[in-house]
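CATEGORY: protein folding

GOAL: derive structure tokens
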Amino acid sequence: MPKKIDIDIELIKKIYVEKMWSLPKTAKILGVSEGTIAIQLRKLGLIRSRTLGVQLSRCKPIDEFWNSIHKTNTCWLWQKYRTKSGYGLLSFNGKAIHAHRVAWQLSNGKIPDGLYVLHHCDNRPCCRPDHLFLGTHADNMIYMISKNRQGAP
């Protein structure tokens, strides 16, 4: 029977997500296989399937995501496609996803149903995790009014 390896999920999250290291580098630093790391990343909801876990070590889509961001002293700005309203946009499995939502999920895990990812900085292309927070649609409207960002009546 193979030896069970206990890896601290928070440590993996810190190394892989916060330090933005690749899956192979994370595995090497922790002294475990890429498969072991991929299993933990699936538990965190950062990768979807075994197939993606294998692809992750080859094409490093999470590295590519973070490399598509220009980090300034304040905001981390999405550099690829943006919507007309200014939000970063990317495609995953043929589905369009806002870049700030991906940044939130990579840093914090799954977005609960019914919640939005909002910006403290009011900068739509910003993907800096500490500039993002969760809220309802009503929260977003209240925040918009408090910042005087609503359109003319």
Remarks:
- The longest helix spans residues 34-44.
